[in-house]
Write a structure and sequence with these properties.
Layout lengths: L8 H6 E4 L6 E6 L5 E7 L4 E7 L3 E5 L6 E8 L4 E8 L1
Antiparallel strand pairs: 1-2, 2-5, 3-4, 3-6, 6-7
């Protein structure tokens, strides 16, 4: 699956993902009021975690995922942003 994404700079500034690098949990903090979906991809393009939330803060359990580089894609109605994530 290609990970090409049209990023929205305003949305990028309203999404914070921490800690990065992460070990057990990854937190998505959003200044976006509307619901959004998230997908965590490995470097081969395989989605390993996915979900939808309307919370301004969401915690993902990444403890069982292999260590390495990932891409977290966050999508609202017609906007998306991608964040590089390191799991260690």
């Amino acid at each position: 699956m290609p990970l090409n994404i049209n990023e929205n700079n305003v949305m990028n500034e309203n999404i914070v993902v921490f800690p990065n690098p992460a070990t057990n949990y990854l937190t998505i903090k959003s200044g976006i009021i509307q619901p959004f979906t998230f997908q965590l991809y490995n470097m081969q393009g395989t989605a390993l975690l996915a979900g939808k939330t309307s919370n301004t803060q969401t915690e993902l359990n990444v403890a069982n995922l292999p260590r390495g580089l990932y891409v977290l894609k966050i999508i609202t109605n017609n906007q998306s942003v991608a964040k590089k994530i390191v799991l260690q």
